[in-house]
Design brief:
By secondary structure, the protein is of the alpha+beta class. Helices cover 32% and strands 24% of the residues.
């Protein structure tokens, strides 16, 4: 495909996927912010990040990194009895990211959030939702290239027990190469070696009810994480997780106060990488083949040598 054909394919994938996802999960597309007030404490820190911050006449602002907390606050305005949700076509800047074939300083994702009942805060409900998302993704592949119909679910402790001597990324590689589509659950709390499978912010995902959705890519011979998602914290899990990371639960923050006072709905949500999804479906080797971004000169030179054309 030439560049024009690739751009047409990218648009078709994005348009079609978001329409199917919205239908399957009962989501309404809404407008989301590009930046938020620092004082609001509503930006997501992702567990280890340094958001872009700048001064304006309206005060100090931060470019958003994801919208997990913002979406849940937004759903306060919705009828909590209808299992309705929202999604945002979100663009972000993550300056701490180390660019490679899967990572970019620029992030584009569908950030979605859905109201649930308190009784839905279960492993079964989480896995049912993951399976719906997988069904939508799998519909983009023809019969000979489809992934398995069922997602392989495994929690991070069981995955650790399978491969205790290797790194978390190596564990992901091994299990995904074998199973092709995997959801690794319970990410955030430390494993027997004292380290979590991966870092997670303490104040939106419940670390007992979250996970990452990975697909094996034949193009790069490695897994691609398409989504990080989970059932969101309730009063108890927020308190436990913030205490664990040493954050003050009583810090002045409307979001924290609303959870403690039960003034926001129970929700499930996450982010689905737009460029990574296009990369997977189009079997590309570098995210820069489906996304315009900035790359180190040595990476650009290597891609040229390897015949990879960056946008």
């Amino acid at each position: 495909m030439n560049r024009e054909e690739i751009e047409e394919k990218i648009k078709w994938i994005k348009d079609t996927f978001e329409r199917k996802l919205a239908y399957e999960l009962n989501l309404l597309r809404v407008s989301g912010p590009i930046f938020v007030s620092v004082e609001s404490n509503i930006n997501d820190d992702l567990g280890n990040s340094n958001p872009v911050t700048f001064n304006t006449q309206s005060g100090k602002l931060q470019v958003v990194q994801s919208l997990a907390k913002w979406k849940r606050m937004r759903l306060k305005d919705f009828d909590s009895s209808k299992y309705q949700g929202i999604y945002v076509d979100m663009n972000a800047i993550r300056p701490d990211e180390t660019p490679d074939n899967l990572h970019s300083i620029y992030v584009d994702q569908w950030d979605w959030e859905k109201i649930i009942n308190e009784s839905d805060r279960t492993k079964n409900y989480l896995e049912e939702t993951v399976s719906i998302i997988h069904k939508v993704i799998n519909s983009f592949f023809d019969i000979n290239k489809k992934y398995p119909e069922n997602v392989y679910f495994i929690n991070s402790k069981d995955l650790y027990d399978l491969y205790p001597a290797v790194s978390p990324k190596s564990r992901e590689y091994l299990i995904c190469k074998e199973q092709k589509v995997v959801f690794i659950e319970r990410i955030g709390w430390p494993l027997p070696d004292g380290k979590p499978h991966d870092l997670r912010a303490a104040d939106y995902d419940d670390w007992q009810l979250n996970g990452d959705l990975l697909y094996w890519s034949d193009a790069i011979q490695a897994p691609i994480e398409i989504s990080s998602m989970g059932i969101r914290v309730d009063r108890d899990s927020l308190f436990d997780q913030l205490n664990y990371v040493g954050k003050n639960i009583f810090k002045k923050c409307e979001y924290y106060e609303d959870i403690l006072d039960k003034n926001v709905p129970y929700t499930i949500g996450g982010g689905i990488g737009q460029s990574r999804l296009c990369m997977l479906i189009l079997q590309k080797k570098h995210i820069g083949e489906v996304q315009a971004s900035v790359w180190p000169k040595e990476m650009i030179d290597k891609c040229k040598r390897d015949g990879i054309e960056l946008l």
